[in-house]
Specification:
Layout: H1 5-8, H2 20-34, H3 38-41, E1 49-55, H4 62-73, E2 82-88, H5 96-105, E3 110-114, E4 129-133, E5 153-157, H6 162-174, E6 180-185, H7 192-206, E7 209-214, H8 227-238, E8 243-246, H9 250-254, H10 256-265, E9 269-272, H11 275-279, E10 284-288, H12 290-305, E11 321-326, H13 327-333, H14 339-344, E12 347-349
Length: 350
């Protein structure tokens, strides 16, 4: 290996699932990117800034629309003050490296990456990256700390540990007879063990037994084979659990419709952390408003375009929290949702 090996080593975990040929290509990509400092890309003042937007999904993308709304709220005009190069992985996470390369070759000034796409951030180094990350960005090796990210990446995390216990309390309020709680989670998701600890801290107070059911899936690829997932579902049923908590992350959201169908078939009241989980059939969600989070990413883009280094922009946690109740799922489970809970809901799905 060359003398640059220690410098590149922090980004190698992000490429762990790739072949040796692909990994060498990424190393060459990083070396090419290093020749394009931000100042050079912005050398002609008065020109619109070039932003890159990397998404795991397909258009139309509500999160992208929210980011654009955030930019407009800050006084930016699209085409006048900025243009956006948008790249969609269309649920194929293996495309991220090629899409990052396209953005680098488009000579964008920074990249906004949300959800699973944020895991591709290291491939864009040393370009500034603003991310919306569902886990712990410190544990995920994206930043050094929340207060001082310390590199070229910064943004917001969806992870809010103080909400974990509240979700269980809401589930218990709706299903007071629940005695055995199943937690379905991806152990490789950064922050998973913190969520598990937070759950264990609250169940004892509520008189609930807790069982943890890990589901492992590739971090770079959407779930295509469901054999392990079905095996996990069977284990939950055999354990005679009567309620289900799904730790939210982007990979879990990809299969949230399957999880919702399983929960109804198994007669399990279910809760997770993002509203789209409830819209896909889970009983309850309580957590951050993801669209507001993407609006917030515009503030980071603004600060960086004005000259602030990403290393000096602290990671933020969500502040706007919403409760969503799916009455259709409640009816399928034969549950009566208390009017007080409905009154507190930000969204009721009927």
């Amino acid at each position: 290996m060359s003398g640059r090996e220690p410098e590149l080593r922090p980004w190698i975990p992000a490429c762990a699932g790739m072949s040796g040929i692909e990994r060498r290509a990424f190393m060459m990509l990083l070396a090419t990117a290093a020749a394009w400092p931000l100042a050079a890309r912005g050398e002609q003042r008065g020109k619109p800034a070039r932003l890159g937007y990397l998404s795991a999904s397909s258009p139309p993308d509500n999160n992208f629309a929210s980011f654009l709304a955030g930019m407009r709220a800050l006084g930016y005009g699209e085409d006048r003050d900025f243009v956006v190069e948008v790249r969609y992985a269309q649920r194929d996470y293996s495309r991220f490296p090629a899409l990052v390369e396209e953005l680098l070759r488009a000579r964008v000034d920074l990249i906004v990456a949300g959800g699973p796409a944020s895991r591709a951030a290291p491939l864009a180094a040393p370009l500034p990256v603003v991310f919306g990350f569902s886990g712990d960005p410190v544990e995920g090796k994206l930043v050094e700390s929340f207060a001082r990210p310390g590199g070229n990446f910064t943004g917001m995390t969806y992870l809010a540990l103080d909400l974990v216990g509240k979700r269980i309390e809401l589930l218990k309020e709706l299903v007071p007879q629940a005695r055995h709680l199943a937690i379905l989670a991806r152990p490789q998701h950064p922050g998973d063990h913190y969520e598990r600890q937070a759950s264990e801290a609250v169940v004892g107070k509520l008189g609930i037994e807790l069982s943890y059911f890990p589901y492992s899936s590739a971090s770079w690829l959407p779930a295509r084979e469901f054999g392990e997932l079905d095996k996990t579902f069977r284990a939950i049923v055999e354990s005679r659990c009567d309620a289900l908590v799904v730790f939210p992350d982007s990979a879990m959201f990809e299969i949230s419709d399957r999880i919702a169908r399983f929960a109804v078939d198994a007669r399990l009241a279910s809760v997770s952390g993002w509203a789209p989980f409830a819209r896909n059939g889970l009983l309850l969600t309580y957590g951050p408003n993801v669209r507001e989070l993407y609006r917030g990413l515009a503030r980071y883009a603004d600060r960086i375009l004005r000259g602030t280094k990403p290393a000096d922009l602290p990671i933020e946690a969500p502040t706007k929290i919403e409760l969503v109740v799916n009455l259709k799922t409640a009816k399928a489970l034969g549950l009566e949702v208390p009017p007080t809970l409905i009154a507190r809901a930000d969204e009721v799905i009927e």
